[in-house]
Specification:
single chain; 209 residues; four-stranded parallel sheet; two-stranded antiparallel ribbon
Length: 209
């Protein structure tokens, strides 16, 4: 891997970028942004701190909806792009919107799943094409990440280099055992939080040895 490259984990919201970042962190990769979501306000929709992004070369940055952020063309990168079944992703986005906007849930308003899914399909190609102009892009589906976490971790290791993800087995163990379907409640979010705290505790204990 070129040390001058930035490394991005990218995709649209609710596609599995957080799970991928957690896999990378648990596997020993250097990541940016506060755990467990690893999101930093300096790189996101409508916000770009170019100097900060340049300073993060060699670390993984989570980049949600790259088409809504602007980076200079001279910033080269390797990108892991997360794809999710459009209807499941749409349901998950709408669930989050209703959690954040209680009035929308009470009146049953907001976008339909079908309309949201169509927009996700329509908007997918341009950001991937733009990222490929910066460097290689590895496309990973949310389904394969959940169903085959170790195989996915090994693919990522080959893509980024073995020195970048030294422990893919441990990385794979950070992935919650679940299906890719959007759940109507907060079971996934709550279970992920519990599993994440346990993973952090193990790392802290090992660091003290």
């Amino acid at each position: 891997m070129n040390e001058a490259d930035n490394i991005f984990v990218a995709g649209f919201g609710r596609c599995g970028t957080t799970a991928m970042m957690q896999l990378l962190w648990a596997g020993g990769a250097p990541v940016a942004g506060p755990a467990p979501a690893f999101e930093d306000c300096r790189l996101g929709p409508g916000t770009t701190d170019v100097a900060w992004v340049r300073a993060q070369r060699g670390r993984v940055l989570k980049w949600i909806d790259p088409s809504r952020s602007r980076l200079p063309v001279d910033i080269t990168s390797r990108t892991i792009w997360l794809d999710r079944a459009p209807k499941d992703q749409a349901r998950s986005q709408i669930k989050m919107l209703r959690m954040l906007t209680p009035d929308m849930a009470s009146i049953g308003g907001g976008p339909s799943v079908s309309a949201f899914a169509r927009s996700l399909k329509r908007d997918r190609a341009p950001p991937i094409a733009a990222l490929r102009k910066r460097g290689p892009v590895l496309v990973v589906t949310f389904k394969e990440l959940l169903a085959q976490p170790l195989a996915t971790a090994l693919r990522v290791r080959r893509f980024l280099g073995p020195e970048f993800l030294p422990d893919p087995v441990r990385g794979a163990k950070a992935i919650l055992n679940r299906g890719p379907e959007c759940q109507p409640d907060l079971w996934v979010e709550q279970s992920t939080s519990i599993a994440w705290k346990a993973c952090e505790a193990v790392k802290e204990q090992e660091a003290e040895l």
